[in-house]
Specification:
The structure holds 2 protein chains of 2 kinds. By secondary structure, chain A is of the alpha/beta class. Chain A is built from 10 helices and 10 strands. Helix content of chain B is about 75%, strand content about 5%. Residues about 295-298 of chain B have low confidence and may be disordered. The chains are: A alpha/beta, B mainly alpha. The interface of A and B includes residues 72, 88, 89 and 102 of A.
Chain lengths: ~240, ~300
């Protein structure tokens, strides 16, 4: 089976065991929401999958090839893009430069330009601000730019770390709508890490609920939403 | 009035050489977070290569070319064989901050010894590529010479080339992104370790030019570039350590300022002048004269 497979993944920060035997899988073209409170280990999970953090044991495969121990710059070339926590743009660079960055490893510049045009079509507000420096953007625009930069890399697997963090409700709604189209229109596989459980599960196919570094529940997103015990214990509404 | 203009022109010459050294320091600082004291040694080694080639061939520019290439290779080598290994072992706690700086000091001593063993400690002279006699305007001869003009032109061309490289090419974008946000650069697919080595190479090449220019019509010895390092470092701090434009502006301000002290006050106060500028900038605008009032980025 292809897609994303994570099996008995363990990760430590020094002496602290951050992730215990995490196992889940995401079929190609599915959107998985990884839900959990602050400190549950969601960010650590994504950082391990994108190669920024080393795992201590376990397996993580994308498209039937091992991801663990591979550098982030090589994973990008295999179609895995990570939008890290906190609007990952380079504030000192212009909007255009941030987008070009996503395709900088490719030798074909025309392809990069084509991808940038598609991103601008998706987020027209970025198109109006191409020559502005990224630190003049609003929080929502920065998140769009961070996602846009990842899309310019033409990923097949997109790892998104709390895209809603610190954004106004209306902007969050827009961002989630856009993420939903990645799967429906572009056929991307998406792992969406969120504290905003309800919004994330509404657009997800499957949900993985993490608490204190362990998977406490997983399954179809629609079923998780309606499970009263889970709602009370982990989803907080 | 004439003296003021003369002083400005000479100051501009001095400042433009400082600018190269301060750029080299800033380039390494931005990419690696290390103040590279070995820069003086690397530049000196490169200058000796340039001296060897230019004195044998009689062509200064051939020597300069070899100094650039030699400096760049040495810079890349220092990062690849030295800093990389160091960072692998000293990567946590206070050691990660202190060890690299101390190591560059040790490296400076090492390069000095190697140069001393190879070329000896005596003073060498690199023949200047242009006349050092001042221009004559009407009946008066001013201290500003064709060599001074050539230095300013050479440095200007190098600065323009660097500006194009950093602002207009993908390599420049990769260098800037890796310096500002290494993690995002990696996630965008940039091989940041390689990019960093390229940054060290550019710094090394630029340092080689600084060494050649400051040593032409002047003494070259294993210690002769130490002053250049000190003033280049002060200029870099004045410019805020982060900005390449700041490094150049800081160097020009320092060069002109020190030349005014030299011409109007006296030789003995040049050093005190330099350090006074450093202390004043650190006290009043620690982020450098180019800072826009924002906090320092980590």
């Amino acid at each position: 089976m292809s897609g994303l497979i994570v099996n008995r993944l363990n990760v430590s920060h020094g002496a602290i065991h951050a992730l215990h035997d995490i196992s889940f899988s995401v079929d190609p073209g599915q959107l998985a929401a990884v839900i959990g409170s602050n400190g549950a280990g969601k960010t650590t999970l994504l950082r391990t999958l994108s190669g920024l953090k080393d795992a201590s044991s376990g397996i993580a495969q994308w498209d039937q090839r091992e991801m663990l121990g591979v550098k982030p710059e090589d994973l990008v070339r295999r179609g895995i893009s990570h939008v890290s926590e906190g609007k990952s743009v380079v504030p000192e660079l212009t909007v255009k430069e941030n987008l070009v960055l996503g395709g900088i490893w490719r030798s074909n510049k025309a392809e990069t330009q084509e991808s940038i045009d598609q991103v601008v079509e998706l987020f027209p507000r970025l198109g109006e601000r191409m020559s502005q420096s990224a630190d003049t953007l609003s929080g929502g625009e920065r998140q769009m730019l961070a996602i846009g930069r990842a899309l310019v890399s033409r990923p097949k697997l997109l790892l998104l770390d709390e895209p809603s963090l610190g954004l106004a409700p209306l902007v969050i709604e827009q961002i989630f709508e856009t993420i939903n189209t990645f799967r429906t229109r572009m056929g991307l596989t998406v792992v969406l890490v969120e504290q905003n459980a309800m919004s994330a599960l509404e657009i997800a196919d499957i949900g993985v609920i993490i608490n204190l570094g362990r998977v406490v529940a997983q399954g179809k997103a629609s079923e998780l939403i309606n499970d009263p015990a889970l709602r009370a214990a982990y989803l907080g509404y | 009035m004439q003296k003021v203009i003369e002083t400005l022109l000479i100051g501009l010459t001095t400042g433009s050489i400082y600018a190269l050294m301060s750029l080299a320091i800033v380039l390494v600082w931005r990419s690696t977070r290390v103040i590279n004291f070995a820069q003086a040694g690397q530049a000196m080694f490169a200058t000796y290569i340039g001296f060897e080639i230019s004195s044998r061939s009689g062509v200064f520019w051939l020597g300069l070319l070899f100094a650039v290439v030699g400096g760049a290779l040495l810079g890349a080598g220092v990062d690849y064989f030295f800093m990389r290994v160091l960072f692998k072992h000293a990567n946590t706690g206070p050691a990660a901050v202190v060890a690299p700086v101390i190591a560059t000091l040790g490296l400076l001593g090492l390069i000095r010894s190697v140069v001393g063993l190879t070329w000896g400690g005596e003073f060498r002279t690199i023949e200047a590529p242009a006349s050092t006699d001042g221009y004559t305007i009407g009946s008066t001869t001013i201290p500003f010479s064709p060599l001074n003009a050539l230095v300013i032109i050479t440095v200007s061309l190098i600065l323009i080339a660097l500006a194009i490289l950093f602002q207009r090419t993908n390599l420049g974008l990769a260098l800037r992104a890796s310096a500002y946000a290494p993690e995002i650069a990696k996630l965008a697919g940039i091989r940041t370790a390689r990019t960093r080595t390229i940054g060290w190479a550019i710094a090394g090449g630029v340092g080689g030019v600084a060494g050649m220019l400051v040593s032409s019509n002047n003494f070259l010895s294993p210690y002769s570039l130490d002053l250049l390092l000190v003033f280049g470092f002060i200029a870099a701090v004045v410019g805020g350590l982060e900005s390449m434009v700041g490094a150049v502006v800081g160097a020009l301000v320092l060069g002109i300022g020190l030349t005014f002290i030299l011409n109007y006050v006296g030789t003995s106060l040049v050093f005190i002048g330099g350090f006074t500028v450093l202390i004043l900038v650190l006290l009043i605008k620690p982020d450098g004269i180019m800072a826009k009032g924002k906090g320092r980025r980590a």
